[in-house]
Design a protein that fits this description.
About 30% of the residues lie in helices and about 25% in strands. With about 500 residues, the protein is of the alpha/beta class.
């Protein structure tokens, strides 16, 4: 019921808000840091800059030539992450043969428009060219070192922060590293080795660890990453920042998100929201996410993973701030208002500012976020495989749809709906067909055993009122097919 607590807290009376705001103002005056409140900024980038933060987006090279796209890009965003162009399959498609052309185009665009760059990503188990997985351990080690060295050297001086290692932790609730060519051949030390190599190449770029499903404080995956960063800081392994991808369901961030950001920041790293998108883009869920960052002094910036809904990797969810015609959505306004409301409140500190409660933005958090909004408005899909389970507990049904597919892979979404009784948890099970394998799950916790796939609720979306729904999504290799789902409620 975490969402319920969050709503309750945000339903403050006007008097409470006014009192809290006055308290903050007095405290700031006392600290001598209160700045004259500037006029509200009219773009995301300039509004974020008022509190010393950036607002960025993911950009694919192919869209730079689209004037409707680049107009929004250059008006709104001060930071760019290449969506795919700095990944290993593009930059080193065969061993020792480097191709920085597509990313260079994005870097040139950024330089011409005064935008900064996040580098994404040097070591990741996905979008790896085939030759990497065929190497022996010692060959892989030197290939990884060479890849980091060549890529960072090429872009030296042009990158604000690098995602040195991306998504190295497992989704199975173990809190351990996931299996990957790097993990399996080089062992746990590959992450530390990558960061040390990166620092030796470029002493000025910030070095980040980046992952998804690490936003909820009590999740095993969050704790695993937290313990790694704590260990790195205690032993002097060079790490400067942690990126929270923040691919959320319609309920938005978990209620502990600000706590998570603040606890990581307290280890002595910057924290950043690096790939934000939210199913159906509820204005309140976006405002909650942005405010979680604004309340933590070392949360230095926010990046959304695409501009228009049609640009999104999960376009069936309409998860972004602009509609497919480039018009700002209600979520855009709520984000802009939140950024403007934060002016002068938490900048400059090096310690966690997570207790500045008076900065809640005025009236854009509607308090109706339920975490159960139907995410089932997906495109090109087949419904099916719905079934009911739940002996001894509550019943639920699960419905599958394919939200995206491409050669060799697809993205699916499963909608879980409680029966006539409330449930406090759910599990969906199905059997993968030949050639299918799941590579990523969000808003759920994956366990696999052979071809049997089980996804249980995440910590924040297990509780469903009678007839209420939630969704989880996944990415898979192979071709889509309609599975027969078994849903069990508890
Ligand atoms: O999966 C969402 C993101 C999760 N965190 C790391 C990010 O790097 C990742 O981004 C996505 C891109 O948005 C997609 O655009 O990464 C996907 C790959 O894992 C990207 O999808 C790829 C497709 O898999 C390719 O088939 C396609 O050729 O996009 C390519 C270019 O459109």
């Amino acid at each position: 019921m975490a969402w319920f607590k969050r709503d309750t807290r945000r339903r403050a009376t006007a008097a409470t808000i006014a009192g809290a705001a006055a308290g903050v103002a007095l405290a700031l005056l006392g600290m001598g840091t209160f700045a004259t409140h500037a006029a509200a900024a009219g773009s995301l980038g300039s509004a974020a800059a008022q509190s010393g933060r950036y607002f960025g987006t993911a950009v694919p090279t192919a869209k730079l030539g689209d004037p409707a796209y680049s107009t929004i890009l250059d008006r709104e965003f001060g930071m760019i992450t290449p969506e795919n162009e700095m990944k290993w399959d593009t930059t080193e498609p065969s061993r020792g043969s480097f191709n920085f052309g597509p990313a260079d185009q994005i870097v040139s665009h950024a330089a011409a428009h005064g935008q900064k760059m996040r580098g994404h990503t040097l070591v990741w188990y996905q979008q790896l060219p085939g030759w990497v997985s065929g190497l022996s351990a010692s060959d892989l080690q030197s290939a990884m070192d060479n890849h980091i060295t060549q890529e960072m050297t090429h872009f030296k001086g042009k990158i604000y922060a690098w995602d040195v290692v991306n998504e190295a932790f497992a989704d199975d609730g173990s809190g351990q590293h996931r299996s990957s060519p790097f993990q399996d051949k080089l062992g746990n030390g590959f992450i530390e080795h990558a960061f040390r190599t990166a620092r030796s190449v470029d002493a000025n770029a910030k070095l980040c660890y980046n992952d998804y499903n690490i936003e909820n404080w009590t999740d095993a995956k969050t704790q695993g990453v937290y313990n790694m960063v704590k260990d790195f800081k205690s032993r002097g392994v060079p790490i400067d920042c942690v990126g929270f991808q923040s691919h959320f369901g319609a309920g938005g961030p978990p209620s502990s998100f600000q706590t998570t950001l603040s606890n990581f920041a307290a280890l002595g790293v910057d924290v950043q929201i690096t790939e934000l998108d939210i199913a159906q883009a509820p204005a309140s869920a976006y405002a909650n996410t942005v405010n979680a960052c604004l309340h933590v002094a070392r949360c230095t910036g926010i990046t959304v993973w695409g501009i228009r809904d049609s640009d999104s990797w999960r376009s069936g969810d309409n998860p972004l701030l602009f509609d497919s015609s480039g018009n700002p959505k209600p979520a855009y306004t709520s984000v802009l208002n939140a950024l403007n409301a934060a002016t002068g409140t938490t900048t400059g500190g090096t310690t966690d500012g997570g207790t500045t409660s008076g900065t809640t933005n005025g009236g854009t958090t509607s308090g109706t976020t339920s975490g159960t909004t139907d995410g089932g408005t997906t495109s090109g899909t087949t419904d099916g495989g719905s079934s009911t389970g739940g002996a001894g507990g509550g019943a639920c049904t699960a419905t599958y749809s394919t939200t995206n597919s491409w050669s060799g892979g697809y993205q699916g979404e499963v909608k879980i709906t409680a029966g006539s009784a409330a449930i406090s948890g759910w599990t969906v099970r199905w059997t993968l067909s030949g050639g299918q394998s799941i590579t990523q799950v969000w808003n759920g916790t994956l366990t696999t055993s052979g071809s049997t796939t089980t996804v249980a609720n995440a910590s924040y979306n297990g509780s469903l009122q009678p007839a209420a729904s939630t969704t989880f999504g996944f990415l898979a290799n192979g071709s889509p097919s309609t599975p027969s789902l078994t849903c069990t409620g508890s």
